[in-house]
Amino acid sequence: MVFLTRRETFNAAHRLFNPNWDDEKNFEVFGVCANKNYHGHNYELFVTVKGNPNPETGIITNLKELSTIIKKEIIDKIDHKNIDSDVDFMKGQLSTTENLTMAIFNELKKVITDCELHRVKVQETENNSAEYFGE
Ligand code: NI
C-alpha cells in the first residue's frame, strides 16, 4: 500500500461567528477570528490517496487528473471567495479548519473513483492545520 499526496493552494476569507450567540460570546470563544469584517488565509490543501501501484504504469492514480478533480470540485469554488457566504459545501457550517477539512473530504469522496481517498489535510496557517480520514 502506498500513499500519494497532491498539494493545492487557495486563498479565502472567513470569520468564525456563531449566529446563535451574541458578539460578546463570539469574541470570548473565537477572539479576533470573530472580527466583523472578515480576514483571510493562504490555505494549503493536501489530498492523499492510497492504493497499490498498477504494475504496468507504476502509479496509483494520475496526479494530473487528481489535480484537475480537486481544482474543479474545490479550488474553483473556494479560491478568492468568502467561505461563509460563497461556498456551497460550507453552507450552514462554521468555517473552522476542522469543518473545512471534513467538508472537502466529503466532496472529494464523491468524485474520486479510481483509487481510495485516504486523507485531507488543510493547513490554515503555518502553525494550524487539521486532518480528516473519513471517520
Ligand atoms: Ni481565520
Task: From the structure above, extract its key features.
4 helices; 32% helix; binds nickel (II) ion; Tetrahydropterin Synthase, Chain A; alpha+beta; 5 strands; 135 residues
Describe the structure.
It is elongated and about 60 Å long. The chain has a five-stranded mixed β-sheet with strand order 3-1-2-4-5. It is of the alpha+beta class and 135 residues long. Helix 2 (63-78) packs across helix 4 (97-111). It has one domain (2-132): Tetrahydropterin Synthase, Chain A (2-Layer Sandwich). The mean pLDDT is 97. It is built from four helices and five strands. Strand 4 (116-123) and strand 5 (129-132) form a beta hairpin. Residues 14, 33, 39, 41 line the site of nickel (II) ion.
SS-derived structural category: alpha+beta
The proportion of strand residues reads: 25-35%
| CATH-assigned homologous superfamily | 6-pyruvoyl tetrahydropterin synthase/QueD
Radius of gyration, taken over Cα atoms and rounded to an integer in Å: 16 Å
Separation of the first and last Cα atoms? 20 Å
Shape: elongated
Largest sheet: 5 strands, mixed
Strands, count: 5
How do the strands of the widest beta sheet line up side by side?
3-1-2-4-5
- Tell me the CATH topology: Tetrahydropterin Synthase, Chain A
CATH architecture: 2-Layer Sandwich
Uncertain runs with pLDDT below 50, 5 residues or more?
A: none
CATH class: Alpha Beta
Give every kind of bound small molecule, once each: nickel (II) ion
Helix amount, in percent? 25-40%
Structure annotation, total helices:
4
